[in-house]
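In response to reviewer comment 3 from the previous cycle, which asked for concrete evidence that the modeling workflow produces usable outputs, we include below a single protein chain processed end to end. The sequence was submitted unchanged, and the resulting structure tokens are shown without manual editing.
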Amino acid sequence: MIKSEGLFATEGMTSSDRSLHTPGDFARRNLLYVQEVGRLKSLKPHRCVREKLESYLFMIVLSGRGSLTADDRQYELQAGDCALLDCREHYEHISNENDGWELAWVHYYGNTAQNFHGLFQKGNGRVPVFHVGDVEPWDQLIGQLLELQRDRSILAELRCGELLLHLQYRILQNLSDRGVLADEQGRQLVSGVREWLNEHYAEKDILQTVEREFSQKLEEIDRSYEQHYGIHIEEYVRSRRLNAAKELLRFSIKPMADVAEASGIGDEETMRRMFREKEGMSAEEYRQKWAQWIR
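The workflow returned the following structure tokens.
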């Protein structure tokens, strides 16, 4: 692990414990991986400016205060505030002169980083900042990543990838929890819609029936459903029907036409197209590979 104290121009301005990491080929191709991870305590105000980096930065304020400028907006941050930033875009941050902050952070990249950031941005109203109630679990996660940099093995990189996935999970869970608190009525609506869809997914004209059943326009229901579950109603119904078809193909001897009808897909050709698109094989091939009664 490479310690930064004494090596950087910020000496005397920050007290830091950080590690830089160069991932192996396997991690670079297949995992989320650490580029830099650390903690710092600001001794004097110091402005950090970055852009055009192929990286994503998660940072959390453990104590103190400071400001972050991103997307041409300035955010005042204090203990418990976090940010998730696309480092290709310009950003800068500076500690408060009278109440210097303590930060924990990780720069990371990898195979799902960009898509996750887009999901986060959508769920957080295109704002890079959010708040958490207890900083300790987040700081512990950063500490685990920092400690793992002592080990350059593939097992350590796999563990780092797992922890970065957990970081992403915690970020989305935070957004979900705040959404539930802010919109209890909407949560109850979409929960009811989901239960109803699970019972009636095979019915024809199901999207029109949803409107009548819940006395709201489909666009409004779908908007709330996508906000809470991350999937549109029509896509959820297709997925539920495909799963029903899989069950029938694996555990019954129903003809293909009956499977298509019973699952709600409708006809054999549509079912074959869905299996080609989602499974990379025909419905017949799926049955041949997975059915327990075929030996």
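The radius of gyration is 24 Å. We consider this sufficient to address the reviewer's concern, and the full set will be provided in the supplementary archive.
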